[in-house]
Amino acid sequence: MEQETGFAPSADLSGLKDALAAIVGDDHVGDDLTTRQLHSEDVWVPARATIALVVAPGSTDEVAAVVRAASDAGYAVAPRGAGMSYTGGYVPVHDRTISLDMTRMDRILRLSRDDMTVTVEAGATWVAVNEALAAQGLRLPFWGPMSGLSSTIGGGISQLNAMFGAGHYGTSSESVVALTVVTATGEVVRTGARGPDGDTPHYRHFGPDLTGLFCGDCGTLGVKAEVTMRLIAAPRFEDTASFSFPTGKALLDAMAEIARSGVAAETCAFDPGLTVIRMKRASLMGDVKTLGAVVAKEKSLGKGLLAAAKIAIGGRNCIPPTDYPLHFACEGRSKAGVEADMAEARRICAAAGGSEIENTIAKVIRAMPFPPLNSMLGPTGEAWVPCHGVASLSTAPDILADILAVYDRRRAEMDAAEVHTGFLFTTMASNAIVIEPVFFWPQGWRKIHESAVEPAHLARLTQRPEDPDATALVTALRKELIEIFARYGTGHFQIGRIYPYRESRDAGSKALLDAIKGVVDPDRILNPGVLGFPAGGAA
Ligand SMILES: Cc1cc2nc3c(=O)[nH]c(=O)nc-3n(C[C@H](O)[C@H](O)[C@H](O)COP(=O)(O)OP(=O)(O)OC[C@H]3O[C@@H](n4cnc5c(N)ncnc54)[C@H](O)[C@@H]3O)c2cc1C
Known about the structure:
Shape: globular
Low-confidence stretches: 1-7
Distance between the termini: 19 Å
Largest sheet: 8 strands, antiparallel
Helix content: 25-40%
Bound molecules: flavin-adenine dinucleotide
Mean pLDDT: 93
Strand content: 15-25%
């Protein structure tokens, strides 16, 4: 990432600090170095510049006033949820940047069973919203990423998510009905059909889809202040199963057919590399917590204890070390419907060459959907970073083969630098597979990891010194993989400053995007450089 130059502040920092404190209150403007440094890095990108101030607005009006004040003073604005991303989206490119900490805006503003919608402030976490809905027998269609213990609805809409409910309902934005967005000029944009009072959104489509414009923008077109999502009745029945496949191609063929048939609520698969990592990761503490969650989830104590006993006896070790395991969940309104979906998914897996294995991991994932974020470090404290592509069902096997060919070609370098890899695969609705290669390498952790990993877990890991050579190799490998994804025309979530977006669009789309950017952020103050928009001055 390049340092920006030529960004001229028009007021000094203490003047801006006073102006912001007058808007949000003294307690919500932070200038201590530790917090500023924490907000200056993400899970992958280390700090290269330092945030000037961390500002936590408490309402949409405060967001608008803060953005206007920052813009008037010549500062860039970096909206931040929980900071659990790894593509440099909110990382400052120069010191004259304020971090807009959205986590104070965490209220549920309206939960209506009558209208089957929920409106939340963008800083609400997935886990908090899910808990509030569960109490009323309701659920979001897409109901969260595995980071949902701390990651926010606003972050998940701004960069899109994969995981829970995605098999039936697609990504996070597909559940969104309306947004209240603050542009870089402080304008408030309210999207969707919004009822008699003009402020009770209930339906997304009313003319061109302005809601969609701001979904997946990584915060560079506007700050999401409020999000309305549609609700479904919480499925009354669910079941899970796990299969093991001898090859990645067999796994991806099965996943594609499961996606086409629409039977799974979500799928989650690994490669042999990630299975090894997961085995190493299993810790006593984690297992005690996990077993408790599994017992609590089963309808009777007897069934719960049996499921927990199977896991404790060694369910994690039942996967052949060279195989690709697939875990899936089916859910629905009737037991018979879920049984029929499970039978179809089993038939598909068997036809693709899969063998059924103990469904311990599938059970654990559903019993504990939002675990502590300890997996942002490797099993003994190695650095971790994923990348991904949203592939068509037909191209996924070829993409996997091309990535594995890169690893084969660079095996000696990777072994020498102790760079390990794994894959996570998941389906998106009936028409995509997310291929997510992950890297582990011997590099120490930073403040961002300390802020998210449980202290007791961190205490068991080994801190390592910086390893610039291994980090450079991971950077190069990640770049090579992103080029493969580009060749296959995959989509991407969490684009940030890593995946080519603007530069990969056709001339017409680019012109349209630039015109929109010119209106919502004429001075390029929102996450400069993200999505590939030039980071300052005229386009
Ligand atoms: C252990 C772990 C597990 C994960 N599991 C998953 C998973 O299962 N599925 C998945 O999809 N991802 C996963 N992720 C990635 C990541 O957590 C998610 O992408 C998540 O959506 C990030 O949300 P956040 O609130 O932390 O956003 P941040 O990281 O704070 O921000 C992300 C981007 O959105 C912008 N942004 C944030 N809030 C706003 C707002 N209110 N308005 C405008 N822009 C905003 C930021 O500027 C930035 O560009 C995982 C990450 C970790 C560390």
